[in-house]
Design brief:
The protein folds into two domains: 5-193, Vaccinia Virus protein VP39 (Rossmann fold); 206-362, Nucleoside Triphosphate Pyrophosphohydrolase. It is elongated. Helix content is 24%, strand content 29%. It is built from ten helices and 17 strands. Strand 2 (64-69), helix 5 and strand 3 (87-91) form a beta-alpha-beta unit. The protein is of the alpha/beta class and 383 residues long. The protein has helices at residues 5-13, 16-19, 23-36, 53-60, 72-82, 119-128, 153-160, 176-179, 247-259, 324-334, and strands at 43-47, 64-69, 87-91, 104-110, 130-143, 149-150, 166-171, 186-193, 206-215, 218-224, 234-235, 238-240, 269-277, 283-292, 307-314, 339-343, 360-362. The longest helix has 14 residues, at 23-36. The protein starts with a helix and ends in a 21-residue tail after the last strand.
Length: 383
């Protein structure tokens, strides 16, 4: 299903329940949230926040709120609404919010889950964002009669049962104060509380892929925008490996989505594997691939909502205003390294800092330091 999020959010906000402009409606939702949210102030992640109406109610109860919405228009309105509160509003996908390994006490979503393609997978991801004993607060329903849309309560409860220690559901259709009118369709809330102590799990790391696109002695960099991480800084075209993908398939997909290239498997070569941990974050594995200019067409900015510009730079002298992770990888690549670490500490900057602590460590091969091969870049001329 393709959703026009700006239109969808604007449509919802025209209803009294989503704008919460009516004092009685607002008080009704405030009362429900008082019952659903933890009594003690905690960290709340509001996914698909729209204009931030529920985020504001949570913040007014003392909770620290992180709100996420894919629509820049909704995010701007939410930021205005939440100004002065312990809250931040990020542009991002509710299905994969840009919170970079953080954990929360509550994940809150209203009329969002039904629009996502894989209910069970999304619930597992959202549970992974919670601390032990954390809770999901989900408001959903089924709308329409001829072609009904939504999620029946029975299906959502069945999907949550294997994940939760406790479940509580409430029928909301009969409470006219919540909606500012009488409604006949199915509307409900489910609160799912996770176990306090979860069973030990095997170590897992995010895997991401990066494309080093070369044009002679130049490489292509993208300036990040509206992502919640490293915005305003240069980075290589990159993204996460999706479930079921291998790393080569992932970098080809990301090249198509971000810079419009139609690469074939033989167009890309793996150059570097780097394990990285950002300041205060969790570890991840980055695979860096190389492709030559002309393969797959001419690059262009295919995601202007996430990238403010594409520019070419000398590989030997990349700009300083880069994500430190990406800068460390390029330096390792130019030195001919194949495996490296970039392990940042608390207090380090996401941005590369000339003269700052060098967190990059080359992992030498047995028998000595790996030398750059014919396909690697060393010295002053990467061409």
């Amino acid at each position: 299903m393709t959703i026009d999020w700006d239109t969808e959010a604007a449509t919802f906000d025209d209803e009294p329940d989503h704008g919460l402009r009516d004092a009685a409606v607002r008080d009704a939702w405030a009362g429900r949230l008082r019952d659903w949210l933890p009594a003690a102030p905690g960290d709340v992640l509001d996914l698909g926040c729209g204009t931030g109406s529920l985020s504001l109610l949570a913040a007014e109860r003392g909770h620290r709120v992180t709100a996420v919405d894919l629509s820049p228009n909704m995010v701007e309105r939410a930021r205005e609404k939440l100004a002065g509160h312990a809250a931040e509003v990020l542009i991002g996908d509710a299905d994969a919010p840009p919170v970079e390994g953080r954990r929360f006490d509550v994940v809150l979503a209203r009329h969002v889950l039904w629009m996502l393609p894989d209910l069970e997978a999304t619930l597992r991801r959202w549970c992974g964002l919670l601390r032990p004993g954390g809770r999901l607060i989900l408001v959903e329903g089924v709308w329409g009669t001829t072609n009904p849309s939504g999620i029946p309560a029975s299906r959502l409860i069945a999907a949550l049962t294997p994940l939760a220690a406790r479940l509580h559901s409430e029928r909301l259709s009969g409470d006219e104060l919540l909606w500012g009118k009488r409604v006949e369709d199915e509307r409900y809330a489910v609160v799912a509380v996770l176990p306090e102590a979860q069973a030990p799990v095997r170590h897992k790391e995010v895997v991401d892929v990066h494309l080093i696109l070369r044009r002679g002695d130049e490489i292509l960099l993208a300036r990040r925008a509206n992502t919640g991480y490293g915005d305003g800084l240069f980075n290589l075209p990159s993204g996460h490996v999706e479930p079921g993908e291998d790393v080569r398939t992932a970098v080809i997909r990301e090249a198509r989505e971000e810079i419009g290239l139609d690469l074939a498997p033989e167009d890309v070569s793996a150059e570097l594997v780097l394990q990285h941990r950002g300041p205060g974050g969790k570890a991840r594995i980055g695979w860096f691939f190389e492709a030559r200019y002309g393969a797959g067409g001419a690059p262009f900015n295919a995601e202007p909502d996430k990238c403010s510009e594409l520019t070419w730079h000398k590989a030997a002298t990349p700009p300083d205003d880069m994500v430190a992770y990406c800068r460390a990888a390029l330096e390792a690549w130019r030195a001919g390294e194949r495996f490296a670490l970039h392990w940042q500490e608390e207090g380090d900057a996401v941005r590369f800092e000339r003269g700052g602590a060098d967190r990059a460590v080359a992992l030498a091969r047995a028998g000595g330091v790996h030398e750059a091969g014919a396909g690697a870049v060393g010295g002053s001329d990467p061409a």
